């Protein structure tokens, strides 16, 4: 009961990439970089196991960024001439590549790290990928002329990779869609169907992670404008509940999302964020257990998964490790109290 996991990313070692950055530059090159990515993946797995995490991730150690780590393996994208574009409805700006031709996978995307992770743990394994809506919100288009058409083209590529990951023993495939609480009308209009295209034919557990973003200044400033209650999810939770995905991952710790909204996710496993990634303050196991308790009136206990609010990539490594330990101990405490 209350199995534990993380949203996806963990901080990278300073010898692999620039520390404390969301878009870090690699510190290694060539064969040393490839080996370093796997070394860091092994560290990430061990860190999670030591903390008592049940469903492990590769920590996204092989990716510079959670979206661009996928895009690098796609033909039809120009990375050489990046353009500045507003992200998340112009919440912040970033230099992004441009789609210049028909999209096609160059080969496997996350196969190397997934096979490596599968070979080095007997626990359940989750691999994360960006969702179609979030991808098209993080890349410029000079080919399709229709963002929805481009999203479904990416969904087809995601499905190809997801099927291969499942065949390699991945237990959970998660699609990250922070754009879902920005373009809420589009979630019902085409966002869910794009995810359905991405999970077509999969028999493993499928999840979608939605959130109010990393703990970076642009997101923190934006959240300060949202008022005392964040009710964006009220519009999209019923649509997610009716979807074919099996799990929804959402933040709870220090969030202003009314906890009763979780009842709108009836029939889904709910991965609740019990660890705040926007602060270096370390949660206590008691606080983690209390966050779990707060949702039990709205989500059946057998459907509750304890997770982090979002990815931990920009955090200090020591802080992330301490938060993982609190996650594992807090979930164990909750099992004793409420199991």
Q: Name the helix and strand elements from N-terminus to C-terminus, one letter apiece.
A: HEHEEHEHEHEHEHHEEHEH
Task: Summarize the biggest pleated sheet.
Answer: 7 strands, parallel
Distance between the termini: 7 Å
Return the CATH class: Alpha Beta
CATH architecture: Alpha-Beta Barrel
Report the CATH topology name.
Answer: TIM Barrel
pLDDT under 50 segments (min length 5)? none
Question: How would you state the average pLDDT, rounded?
Answer: 95
Can you count the helices? 10
Describe this entry's structure for a reader:
By secondary structure, the protein is α/β, with parallel strands linked by helices. It has a single domain, classed as TIM Barrel. The chain is built from 10 helices and 10 strands. The termini are close together.
Q: What are the main properties of this structure?
A:
339 residues, alpha/beta, TIM Barrel, seven-stranded parallel β-sheet, three-stranded mixed β-sheet, 10 helices, 10 strands, 37% helix, globular
């Amino acid at each position: 009961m209350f199995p534990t996991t993380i949203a996806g990313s963990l901080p990278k070692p300073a010898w692999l990439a620039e520390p404390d950055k969301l878009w870090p530059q690699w510190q290694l090159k060539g064969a040393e970089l490839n080996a370093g990515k796997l070394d860091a993946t092994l560290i990430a797995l061990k860190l999670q196991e030591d903390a008592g995490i049940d469903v492990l991730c590769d920590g996204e150690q092989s990716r510079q960024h959670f979206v661009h780590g996928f895009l690098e393996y796609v033909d039809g994208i120009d990375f050489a001439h990046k353009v500045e574009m507003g992200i998340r409805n112009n919440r912040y700006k970033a230099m992004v590549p441009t789609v210049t031709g028909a999209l096609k996978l160059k080969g496997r995307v996350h196969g190397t790290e997934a096979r490596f992770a599968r070979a080095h743990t007997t626990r359940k394994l989750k691999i994360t990928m960006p969702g179609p809506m979030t991808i098209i919100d993080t890349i410029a288009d000079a080919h399709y002329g229709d963002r929805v058409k481009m999203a479904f083209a990416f969904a087809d590529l995601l499905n190809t990779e997801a099927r291969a990951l499942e065949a390699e023993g991945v237990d959970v495939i998660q699609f990250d869609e922070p754009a879902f609480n920005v373009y809420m009308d589009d979630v019902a209009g085409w966002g869910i169907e794009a995810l359905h295209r991405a999970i077509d034919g999969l028999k493993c557990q499928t999840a979608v992670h939605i959130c109010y973003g990393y703990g970076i200044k642009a997101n923190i400033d934006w959240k300060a404008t949202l008022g005392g209650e964040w009710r964006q999810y009220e519009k999209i939770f019923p649509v997610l509940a009716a979807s074919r995905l099996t799990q929804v991952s959402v933040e709870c710790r220090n969030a202003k999302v009314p906890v009763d909204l979780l009842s709108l996710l009836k029939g889904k496993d709910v991965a609740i964020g019990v660890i705040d990634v926007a602060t270096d303050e370390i949660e206590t196991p008691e606080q983690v257990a209390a966050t779990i308790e707060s949702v039990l009136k709205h989500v059946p206990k057998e459907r509750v998964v304890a997770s982090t609010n979002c990815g931990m990539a920009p955090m200090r490594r020591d802080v992330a490790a301490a938060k993982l330990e609190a996650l594992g101990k807090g979930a164990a405490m909750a099992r004793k109290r409420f199991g």
